Amino acid sequence: MLAVLGFVGTLALVTGLIHLYLWKRLVRDTTRPGRWRRIGTVTVLVLAVLVPVTMVGTQAGLYWLAWPGYLWLAVMFYLLVVLVALEVPMLVARLVLRRRVVAAEPTAAAPEPALVGAAGTADPPAADAVRQPDHDPSRRLLLARGAAIFAGLTATGVTGYGIRTALGPPQLDRVQIPLAKLPRSMDGLRIATVSDIHLGPLRGRAHTERIVAAINRLDADLVAVVGDLVDGSVAELGEAAAPLRDLRSRFGSFFVTGNHEYYSGVEEWVQEVDRLGLRVLQNERLEIAARGGVLDLAGVNDPSGEGGTGLAAGPDYAAALGDRDTSRPVVLLAHQPVAALEASKFDVDLQLSGHTHGGQIVPFNLAVRLEQPVVSGLGEVDGTKVYVTNGAGFWGPPVRVGAEPQITLVELRSR
Question: pLDDT at position 130, please?
Fold first, then answer.
């Protein structure tokens, strides 16, 4: 809970600064002092408060806040992106406008001799002679309004596209990954991989049923659910997760914890997932004997459990990967791709991960690269191959742009 509150506090500060910028560009620059500016200011204040209130409220079970709060979060993000991108062209336009206005002003003529009146005093200069340069504020206002309208239409259009993508069915991708140690008899072993289902305020049982049906159509040898199944307690979401008991595969379905399980009561969820028939790999490995060959399947807990004990413990790579037969290939299930930095020290052949959502909304994927070595698809970390699936759900805004929801059939190939 402390981690969640810390995150919400940071989010409140950041969104507060963002809303200050949006107020300047969308309200102050586009209105004259008066009623409309006051209305715009109040609206921005309400929206600024809505974001942290939504984060806290949904944690407290106020799920009706989710749609307005998370949708505004997405629109806010794209308004920020578009307006920042417009800063340079807007600056150029303002400079050009000012230069044209100045160039259009009449050249000052030589001063005429002052006329002395009957009282012996000079007449006052003409009004035109003392008028200050007019840089045409109406044109600047029109320019600001045009930029605001463009930003608004772009942000809402992209958000609408992202909602349709996020709420649509996950795409089914297939990837072949060669493993040097894989026995020829196991060539073609298939692992249906899914992550980040994120059952919660906006996704329920129907979401799980659709994912289970899609996985079962793949006729996989193994099913790997690599974390972030839920955003809520077992009491709130146990019924939504229940269809997982219908997963089918030849050699079993497996689960490892993600960071959101630690925010949602990890001990209860480990027991619940196990009750639904998925084997929870908590810093352990087991042998998968198939087609006359053997490989090791291992799983580690999410780093969010650092310092915890029992079912809430953090990752222990030595427990999961140490003292094994290194002539056999090992596939590691780890929620976060960054786990490969430690896993590579144990000669892991392949790590299957999620967590990143593929960035979820472009250009946020660029920020994810600062934290994770692989954002989406197949990569390599210190000799360990890492495959990262985009995830089948979403977190926060029900929006995906540039990273469609995904279930992946990983096919292992021998060389």
Answer: 47
Q: Which ranges constitute the DSSP H helices of 35-65?
A: 35-59
d(CA 342, CA 327): 19
Cβ atoms of 228 and 195 closer than 8 Å: yes
What percent of the chain clears pLDDT 70, i.e. is strictly above it? Answer: 90
Tokens of 16: 């507060």
253-285 burial, b if ≥16 CB within 10 A, otherwise e?
A: bbbbbbbbbbbbbbeebbebbeebebebbbbbb
Task: Report how many helices (DSSP H) and strands (DSSP E) the chain contains, helices first.
Answer: 12, 12
Tell me the CATH architecture of domain 170-414.
Answer: 4-Layer Sandwich (3.60)
Tokens representing residue 149 in the block: 């309208």
CA angle 305, 307, 309 (to 5 degrees): 80
Domain ranges of the chain: 2-103+138-164, 170-414
d(C-alpha 340, C-alpha 343), whole Å: 5
pLDDT value for 132:
47
